[in-house]
Amino acid sequence: MAEFNDKNKGQGHSGGTHPGQGHGGGTQQGQKAMDKARETASNVTQQARETASNVAQQTREAASSATQQARDFASSATHRAQDMASSLRDQAEQGTAALGHVMRDMASGLRQSAPRAGAMGSAASGLADTLDRGGQFLEQEGLGGMNDDVGTLIRRNPIQSMLVGVGVGFLLARFMRRS
Fold first, then answer.
1. Cβ of 37: how many Cβ atoms within 10 Å?
2. Position 20 pLDDT exceeds 80
3. How far apart, in whole angstroms, are the C-alpha atoms of residue 123 and residue 144?
4. pLDDT digits (tens, 9 = 90+) for 127-173
């Protein structure tokens, strides 16, 4: 074994597999391979960064677009709901005014056809006056006036209003249970 080592001492061992490659040639090729590997790794890293950046940008754009679409939809739905509520409020006001007009017409008809004297005449006159005032109120004030009057009534009589609310709730609950 010592004999084998002595024979090979003068021959530079390159570590390579090709004959004729000296120690310096193998190192140069190894260095070139390392440089090539580094360059390839750098290129792959750069491409990965660019791809990640592009994906992140596309994700941000998609999220922004989805957010904007959601905002537009919500805004559109809000506007439609407001338009519908306004239309319903207008229809209710028109219906209330029409009801007031009908009440005033009934009062006028009652005055013309009811007896003028006696207990029946007095009751018919009182009913006609009440119908006329109620119809006039509905024509002029509408639902807004009724809402204001009910609010004022509740503020002036809170305990009685609460008791009326409890009573109405009780009656509604009994009615719903029977149905």
1. 10
2. no
3. 30
4. 999 999 989 988 888 888 888 888 999 999 999 999 999 999 999 99
Four-CA torsion 124, 128, 130, 134, nearest 10 degrees? 150
Helix (H) or strand (E) holding 121: helix 118-140
* Residues contacting residue 141 through CB under 8 Å, at least 6 positions apart: 148, 149
Residue type, 57: Q
Please tell me the distance from the alpha carbon of residue 11 to that of residue 19, in angstroms, as a whole number: 11
Cβ proximity of 142 and 89 under 8 Å:
no
Helices 23-113/118-140 angle, 10° precision? 150
Assigned token pair, 52: 């990640």
SS3 94: helix
Which regions of 18-150 does DSSP assign to beta strands (E)? none
Residue 45 CA to residue 39 CA, distance in Å, equals: 10
Cβ–Cβ < 8 Å for 15, 25: no
Burial label, 107 (beta-carbon count in 10 A; 0-12, 13-18, 19+)? buried
**For residue 102, what are the CA distances in angstroms to 29, 98, 114, 118, 140?**
107, 6, 18, 27, 13
Residue 144: which of 89, 91, 103 has the closest Cα?
A: 89
User: So what's the pLDDT on residue 141?
Assistant: 86
Distance, CA of 124 to CA of 106 (rounded, Å): 11
